[in-house]
């Protein structure tokens, strides 16, 4: 394990969620997560990714200023999954995001929701963007629920948008605006999740 001691030093006590730089983990871990059936079948491409393809992807995203990737963790040690922003457009102040759990045993325990809360606050308060988008394969009903619960609303339905497994799949585009997150959904979600501003302030996002 090759943790930056500064990062470990900075993590004291409970935190809502911690976003670690992906350089903190062995790239092979991400490849293993991404190649799990439950993950790859919810993505636009679902072939098994080879070490070479993965390395090329890793090098590409490391150089690309329009994307940001993190590993999320609940204690700074345990690596749980991947969260990312892509198509970050500072001129129009919008971006897309995506998430998947790497450790599938931890699904359905509210960790994804803590990540979603943190990414919304980060995008709207730290990056000062105005709109956060995401796209999901139309059959992925749990993920659509996961986004809608936080205020994401459907903006587009793209028929036969992805060709995979010798057939076409529909895609749903969802989005939430800063104003709606700040004034409509944030307080509601705090109550639903039973979290306080003090806990939220203890989230850590390493950039
Ligand atoms: C979608 C995902 C990130 C949610 O993370 P999670 O930690 O399991 O979600 P939570 O425990 O915070 O659940 C929040 C809500 O998401 C929904 N949900 C989504 N996936 C779920 C799952 N596999 N099991 C249970 N609930 C799930 C539930 O409706 C839940 O709502 P509730 O609190 O009203 O019951 C995770 O299930 C995952 O990695 N899925 C596979 C990859 C994927 O589809 N990513 C999105 C692609 S666009």
Tags for this model:
207 residues; single chain; Aminopeptidase; 37% helix; alpha+beta; binds coenzyme A
SSE order and pairing:
Elements: H1 5-10, E1 18-21, H2 27-34, H3 37-40, H4 51-63, E2 68-73, E3 81-89, E4 94-101, H5 111-126, E5 131-137, H6 141-148, E6 153-164, E7 167-177, H7 178-193, H8 197-201, E8 204-205
Parallel strand pairs: 1-8, 4-5
Antiparallel strand pairs: 1-2, 2-3, 3-4, 5-7, 6-7
The structure holds coenzyme A.
Explain this structure.
Strands 6-7-5-4-3-2-1-8 form an 8-stranded mixed beta sheet, sandwiched between helices. The model has no long low-confidence stretch (mean pLDDT 93). The chain has a single domain (5-205), classed as Aminopeptidase. It is of the alpha+beta class. The protein contains 8 helices and 8 strands. Helix 5 packs antiparallel against helix 7 (178-193). It binds coenzyme A. Coenzyme A is lined by residues 38-39, 42, 98-101, 107-113, 136, 140, 142-143, 145-146, 149.
